[in-house]
Amino acid sequence: MENLRLNNERILNRDFGKYRSGLVIISDKEIENLSDLDFFRNTNDDWSKANKAREKFVKNTNIPFDGSLALVIKGQFRVNAKGTKIFDTTKKGDVLISINWGGAFDKSRGIEIDKVKDYKYYSHSKSNGGGTGIDWIVISEDYKNELNIDDI
């Protein structure tokens, strides 16, 4: 991941590539990968407690997904005048969620995006064969997806 120091001492991290978020991430520290910014890992020393807290947070959003929860990063999403999608971790209000899906003998296929309303950003990357991939979604921190009986 490319880290560039801005004039206000923040770090600009370009997270581009096939399975990457496709976002410019602004943080207050240099990072090697996005897991360095995971909210639940950074606020909890015990990894199993962090995983349970992360899963509970995403379950409460009511976003239907099939796969394994990888990251939850808090920040603020915006699009600049040039159209660049930016996620600023030095501010609050939104959440970036990453879901890994698929693999050998695994039928999971990520976020059911057609059942999610009012998301701010979504990216779906899959292998050339379509059997494995990663989904990225940005929602408001207090987001609660309302499912209709017809959606089930």
Provide structural commentary.
The protein is 12% helix and 38% strand. With 152 residues, the chain is mainly β. The chain has one domain. An eight-stranded mixed β-sheet has the order 1-2-3-6-5-7-10-9, with helices on one face. The protein is globular, with a radius of gyration of 16 Å.
On the 0 to 100 scale, the average pLDDT is: 83
* Helical content class: 10-25%
| Topology as a string of helices (H) and strands (E) | EEEHHEEEEEEE
Low-pLDDT segments: none
Q: Indicate how many domains the architecture comprises.
A: 1
Main sheet record: 8 strands, mixed
Shape: globular
DSSP E strands, number: 10
Rg computed from alpha carbons, rounded to a whole number of angstroms: 16 Å
Q: Tally the helices.
A: 2
User: What percentage of the residues does DSSP assign to strands (E)?
Assistant: 35-45%
The helix-and-strand class reads mainly beta
Q: How far apart lie the N and C ends?
A: 39 Å
Order of the strands making up the biggest sheet: 1-2-3-6-5-7-10-9
Keywords:
about 150 residues, mainly beta, two-stranded antiparallel ribbon, 2 helices, about 10% helix
Reconstruct the topology from this structure.
Layout: E1 2-5, E2 11-15, E3 23-27, H1 39-42, H2 47-61, E4 65-66, E5 68-79, E6 85-88, E7 94-102, E8 110-111, E9 121-126, E10 132-140
Question: Quick recap of the structure?
Answer:
This protein is mainly beta and 152 residues long. Helices cover 12% and strands 38% of the residues.
